[in-house]
Amino acid sequence: MNKSELVELIAEKADISKAKAALAVDAFTAGVADALAKGDEVALVGFGTFTTAKREARKGRNPATGKEITIAAATLPKFRPGKALKDAVK
After folding, report:
1. Disulfide check for 85: which of 13, 33, 78, 81 has CB 3.0–4.6 Å away?
2. How confident is the model at residue 87 (pLDDT cuts 50, 70, 90)?
3. Domain segments of the chain: what residues?
4. Using CA atoms, how far apart are residues 32 and 18, in angstroms rounded to an integer?
5. pLDDT digits 0-9 by tens, 11-49
6. What is the distance between the alpha carbons of residues 9 and 21, in angstroms, rounded to a whole number?
7. Helices of type H across the chain
8. Which positions make up the signal peptide (predicted)?
């Protein structure tokens, strides 16, 4: 499912226009991104939790040359599904 299909589904389920559903999807994704950028977590009971995880710097190899390189440390988004979502997918 892509974004436009999700917007269509939300519009149908919530009985709202596609334009309002698109605004809702955009607001949700922006809200989650803003919270994660601040270091907060977003917990939706039953659905799951969006958090961040720190990845330390590490050594790697350039596959083209075989030369060793340093891969920088990074903070990455993570999603941990909730029990209700896991059960729905089973």
Report:
1. 81
2. very high
3. 1-40, 42-90
4. 21
5. 999 999 999 999 999 999 999 999 999 999 999 999 999
6. 9
7. 3-14, 18-37, 83-89
8. none
Q: Which of 55, 57, 53 is nearest to 77 (CA)?
A: 53
Work out the number of other CB atoms within 10 angstroms of the CB of residue 38. 8
Long-range CB contacts (< 8 A, 24+ apart) of 36-40? 36/77
**Cβ proximity of 34 and 52 under 8 Å:** no
Phi, psi at 51, each rounded to 5°: -135, 180
Question: Order of strands across the sheet with 42-44?
Answer: 42-44, 48-55, 74-81
- Residue in this structure with the two tokens 């340093």, named with its chain if needed: 70
Q: Indicate the residue type of 20.
A: K
